């Protein structure tokens, strides 16, 4: 008979807790990204979701994928989205003030 106490050691509980916290963070940031009316806030929430996914990869011992997530998505896509939002927002504000 298998003793269930050996499966529920402290390492398992810590990993389960970290995974659960990261899963809640990812879901929370994703929901905030979709429901946010301010585009800058939505972009920042999206970056938070990307960072949470990167932490999840690192916690699963896939550190290369986690670093690639940070460099490509947070560094590249996130900055691109923020610049696009900021430039578009500035253009819309200028058009509204002139018209």
Automatic annotation (TrEMBL):
Membrane keyword on record: yes
Name of the molecule in the record: NADH-quinone oxidoreductase subunit J
Spans through the membrane: 12-35, 42-60, 66-87
Entry superkingdom: Archaea
Keywords: Membrane, Transmembrane, Transmembrane helix
Gene3D superfamilies: NADH-ubiquinone/plastoquinone oxidoreductase chain 6, subunit NuoJ
């Amino acid at each position: 008979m298998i003793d269930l106490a050996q499966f529920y050691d402290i390492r398992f509980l810590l990993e389960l807790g970290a995974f659960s916290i990261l899963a809640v963070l990812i879901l929370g940031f994703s929901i905030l990204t979709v429901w946010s009316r301010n585009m800058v806030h939505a972009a920042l929430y999206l970056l938070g979701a990307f960072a949470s996914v990167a932490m999840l990869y690192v916690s699963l011992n896939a550190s290369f994928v986690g670093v690639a997530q940070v460099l490509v998505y947070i560094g590249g896509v996130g900055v691109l989205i923020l610049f696009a939002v900021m430039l578009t927002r500035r253009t819309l504000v200028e058009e509204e003030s002139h018209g």
